[in-house]
Design goal:
The chain is mainly alpha-helical. The protein folds into 2 domains: 2-83, Arc Repressor Mutant, subunit A (Orthogonal Bundle); 87-239, Up-down Bundle (Four Helix Bundle (Hemerythrin (Met), subunit A)), CATH 1.20.120.530. Helix content is 66%, strand content 3%. β1 and β2 form a beta hairpin. α3 crosses α4 and α9 (151-165) runs antiparallel to α10.
Length: 240
């Protein structure tokens, strides 16, 4: 019987302890309102306060370093940092390991962002920006009404729009999502036949930027991306 009881014993999952310590540390940061540059207690102090080994503390700290929440400073110790959100997300943005539903959601997010950033674009756009957009559009071929825009032209034109916003997080986010956009185009995920053939070309968007308003931009961009929305809707219906 005693031998059978021994066989029922299982190894302790030390990772759960690391998880708890990690959450305790994050909670400590919040409760003490620590700001970027603030120094956190040393490993030995944290281990003593939490009643765990320094190995567990070290692994928890390494996780937080990977997340960009803390970093080691020479002659100072470990300090709080401001995480680079886009960098964190980029590590998991591997298109081939994301399912079609997630890819579709990410692509929809891109469409919503580009429709919604009209106010930022109009706030910062310059004549030089307009000239550069004209140059980009002049290099593009003529499109038919139901065109699925060439990916290289899409990236060049829309990257310029993100740049005009002067919002670094938006710009980095767009760069982070580019591999996903490429994959969505190349995989055929949105190459679906559509019956609705409304769209506004890149040239039409530039014309709105030259003499229109943020509201007119949002309407034009929504129509510009109409075919994408229609393809996504078709995809949803075919998967239902």
């Amino acid at each position: 019987m005693e031998a059978e009881d021994k066989n029922l014993l299982t190894a302790v999952d030390t990772r759960s302890l690391v998880d708890k310590v990690e959450m305790n540390l994050v909670d400590y940061f919040k409760k003490n309102a620590l700001q970027p540059g603030d120094v956190i207690p040393k490993e030995v102090e944290l281990a003593s306060a939490m009643g765990v080994s320094r190995t567990v503390i070290r692994e928890s700290l390494n996780r937080l370093k990977t997340m960009g929440m803390i970093e080691s400073k020479k002659h100072k110790g470990t300090v709080i940092t401001s995480p680079d959100i886009s960098s964190l997300l980029q590590k998991s943005m591997i298109p081939h390991i994301l399912d079609n539903s997630t890819l579709k959601d990410i692509f929809e997010l891109r469409l919503i962002l580009e429709i919604g950033m009209g106010d930022l674009i109009f706030r910062h756009i310059t004549n030089q920006d307009l000239r550069e957009l004209d140059e980009i559009v002049d290099q593009e071929p003529e499109f038919s009404e139901d065109i699925l825009f060439d990916i290289s032209h899409e990236i060049q034109f829309h990257s310029k729009l993100y740049s005009i916003t002067k919002n670094e997080t938006l710009k980095n986010f767009q760069k982070m999502l580019l591999p996903v956009f490429n994959y969505v185009y190349d995989s055929g995920l949105i190459h679906k036949p559509i019956s609705n053939k409304r769209y506004v070309s890149h040239r039409g968007i530039v014309d709105v930027l030259k003499g229109g308003s943020p509201d007119e931009y949002r309407t034009a961009m929504r129509k510009h991306l109409e075919n994408h929305f229609q393809r996504i809707l078709t995809l949803e219906q075919s998967n239902a």
